[in-house]
Amino acid sequence: MNIEKITDIELLIKSRLDYFANDSHMPQENLETLIANLRSYFEKHIPLNDFVCLAVKEADTIASVGFMVINEMPANGFAIEGMTGTLLNILPIPNTGKKDTVKL
C-alpha cells in the first residue's frame, strides 16, 4: 500500500464527483457548473499548496482519496504557525477488495 499526493486535475474532479454521487443529492443540471468550478479551483490552489489530495494506492488501484484545504491565519495559541487544515472528505473507492474503511 502506498500513499501519494495527487495533482491530476481530471482525477481529482472524478474523485470529487464520486463523493457527491455517494453523499449528496446533486441535481444533474448543476453538474456542468460544478465541474467548471472544481477545475478552476484545482488549477488555482494546487500550485499554491493550499489544497492537498492524498490517495491510498494498492498496486495500480486507488483504494481511497482524502482532500484537505490548508488555511493561513494570524498565528495564535491554537495554531502557532498560523496554519490549519480542514479535511473535506475521505472517500473509500468501492470494489477495491477492501471494506469501505480508511485507516489514518
Description of the molecule:
The chain has 104 residues and is α+β, with helices and mostly antiparallel strands. 32% of the residues lie in helices and 33% in strands. It contains two helices and four strands, in the order E-H-H-E-E-E. Strands 1-2-3-4 form a four-stranded antiparallel beta sheet. A hairpin with a 2-residue loop joins strand 2 and strand 3. The longest helix has 18 residues, at 31-48. The chain is globular. The two termini are 13 Å apart.
Uncertain ranges: 100-104
| Spatial arrangement of strands, main beta sheet | 1-2-3-4
Count of strand segments: 4
Note the gap between the termini: 13 Å
Shape: globular
Order of helices and strands: EHHEEE
Radius of gyration: 15 Å
Mean pLDDT: 82
Category from helices, strands and their pairing: alpha+beta
Largest sheet properties = 4 strands, antiparallel
Give the % helix: 25-40%
The percent range for strand residues is 25-35%
Tally of alpha and pi helices = 2
Keywords:
disordered C terminus; 4-stranded antiparallel beta sheet; 2 helices; alpha+beta
Nutshell version of this structure?
This protein has 104 residues and is of the alpha+beta class. The protein contains two helices and four strands.
Could you give the topology of this structure?
Layout: E1 2-5, H1 9-23, H2 31-48, E2 51-58, E3 61-72, E4 83-92
Antiparallel strand pairs: 1-2, 2-3, 3-4
Helix pairs in contact: 1-2
